[in-house]
Amino acid sequence: MDTRDELLRQGHLACPGCGLAVAMRLVLSVLGQKTIVVIIPSCEAVISATYPLSALKVPAFHSAFVIAGATASGISRALKIRGEDDITVLAFAGDGGTYDIGLQSLSGAAERNEDFIYVCLDNEAYMNTGIQASSSTPYCSWTITTPKGKREKKKKLMDIIVAHSVPYAATATIGYPEDLMEKVKKAKALRGTRFIHILAPCPTGWRMKEDLTGIVSILASETKVFPLYEVYDGEIYKITKMPKGLPVRDYLSIQGRFSHLKDEDIEEIQRNVDREWERLMYLVKRNEKA
Q: Could you tell me which residues are beta bridge partners of residue 37?
């Protein structure tokens, strides 16, 4: 990637090894200068802009936690009234602002097929406020509010988004930057609500070394914990990176948030991962037979 295309300046406030900062850089490098960014309270808000300063080289609108989808919708419609159809509206939100607090706003926008790109930067907990569990936090994961491990499974957000029949939805990780950037490119070329779910590891919250962010992102895909795929019009599923099928233990073992797990816990997680992969493959093959 040509560093001249980067729209996230040096000197931002991300922690060392932050997956969110890498993801934001990659997304913005594809979308380019003609982009307006919506940001809500989250780690990405701290990273990108603390008034009156900004680490972004594009206009950014700081909105309320609950309404990333509604704010992006309003900006998009205002641009159309002005006849400015060549500007991309991008909403950055974390898992707290997407899975939980902002889900109603996002659902309403997706149901109306509002014209913007929504990127969920998923670090799987409320990291900005001290590592509390969200509905994105994985089963058995440690957080300060689930010290013995979360007992609820991670919400199936992509299923919810796909149920709205949006033109494009995809998963991505910073471990495969080319795949991520290609998906942003595809989203930019379309119109309507486009959704990209990016796994963005947090060394602090995941209790791991700062130099493991890329490795753990790759392992998330290769163990099928976070498969990489895209969905068109709520119907057509495509795998974009076929995983090696490594044991889920490889992914869990380098994260301190799972250090309390027993063998039977890991075996249960492996069964859950295998079951979800089989379900995804069914959806992919269903389209191939149609």
A: 60, 90
At residue 290, the pLDDT reads 58
Q: What is the pLDDT of residue 127?
A: 95
- pLDDT score, position 1: 53
Full set of structural domains in the chain with CATH: 3-289 (3.40.50.970)
Query: Which stretches of the chain drop beneath a pLDDT of 70?
Result: 1-5, 49, 289-290
**How many other C-beta atoms lie within 10 A of the C-beta of residue 148?**
8
Cβ neighbours for 30, distance < 8 A, ≥ 6 positions apart: 181, 184, 185, 188
CB 33 within 8 Å of CB 8? no
Q: Note the Cα 162 to chain centre separation in Å.
A: 15
CA gap 11, 263 in Å, rounded = 43
> For the sheet containing 228-232, what is the strand order?
60-62, 35-39, 88-94, 116-122, 193-199, 168-173, 228-232, 236-241
What is the residue whose two structure tokens read 């895209």? 230
